[in-house]
Structure formats: C-alpha cells, structure tokens
Amino acid sequence: MDEDPDAKVAELRQEFGGLLNDEVLLRMAREEQGGNNMAPIKKIADLGDKEEISIVVKVTRVNDTKKFQKRTGGEGQVRNINVEDETGTCRLTLWDEDVDLPENMNIEIGTQLKLTDCYTKQTDFGLDITKGRKGKIELE
C-alpha cells in the first residue's frame, strides 16, 4: 500500500462513524490501494455485528417500502427483505436508491440471492445486512 495503513484505517473509521470494525476497515483500505479482498463467505449463524461479509440466502418475505425524515434533512426510504439459510434468519435492509431492487430484479419469496461485500449491523430488531457503497446483490 502506498499510504500508511493505520492512517487510512483512521480516515475510514472517521468516515463510517464507528459502524465498521478495524478488520473491515483494513480490508477496505487495502482494496482502495488495488488489492482484491472479497469478504469471506459466511452463514447467518456465524455473522456478528459490524462485519463485512459475503453470503448466499433465500428470500422469505419482501416488505413494503417505508419513508422517513432523515436527521440531516430530507426524506429517506428503507425496505426490509427477510432472508434465511440453513443456519438461521435475518434481514436484508435496502436504503434509498436500492428500495426498488425487488421489482427491478424480480426478487420474490424463494429467490436465492448472493450478497457480496455487504455489511452487518446488530439492531433492536436483530441482525441486518446492508449493501453499503461497494456491496453487490445478485440473483444466485
């Protein structure tokens, strides 16, 4: 890496406001320098808070889009998709420009999805997976 890894991790930590752990931030720093570090493929039972992961899941429910007022002003949108694998269940949370993915990708109950380089977050409702800025959601 051209830039000091600790400095880049500190910069990313500030950018993401503590939402990601240092392991994920280091992987992101390396990737920005040209490395290819796909997040490890995991099962739902093995997911923790603030991880970068890749996973294959099956859709069990597609919820309606909800609108809300952002703290910074303006209106936001959120939509949850309940997903499962053989080890457990969780939610895939879609934000703003991604809320139309179920219609655009023909995602329905039973659809298999491959989530690559996505992020986890523990919420009051359980574990959520979000795409983030570099993640991908694809039909499996």
Structure characterization notes:
The chain has 140 residues and is an alpha+beta fold. The chain folds into two domains: 37 residues, no CATH class; 102 residues, OB fold (Dihydrolipoamide Acetyltransferase, E2P). 19% of the residues lie in helices and 39% in strands. It contains three helices and seven strands. It has a five-stranded mixed β-barrel with strand order 1-3-4-6-5. α1 crosses α2. The longest helix is centred in the N-terminal third of the chain and has 12 residues. The radius of gyration is 16 Å and the shape is globular. The N and C termini lie far apart (33 Å). The model has no long low-confidence stretch (mean pLDDT 87).
Notable characteristics:
OB fold (Dihydrolipoamide Acetyltransferase, E2P); 5-stranded mixed β-barrel; 2 domains; about 20% helix; about 140 residues; alpha+beta
- Strand coverage percent: 35-45%
- Total number of domains: 2
Query: Low-confidence segments, ≥5 residues, pLDDT <50?
Result: none
Shape: globular
Fourth-tier CATH superfamily name of the largest domain: Nucleic acid-binding proteins
Describe, in short, the structure shown.
The protein is α+β, with helices and mostly antiparallel strands.
Show the helix and strand layout:
Elements: H1 5-16, H2 22-32, E1 52-62, E2 66-69, E3 75-85, E4 88-95, H3 101-104, E5 112-123, E6 126-130, E7 136-139
Parallel strand pairs: 4-6
Antiparallel strand pairs: 1-3, 1-5, 2-3, 3-4, 5-6, 5-7
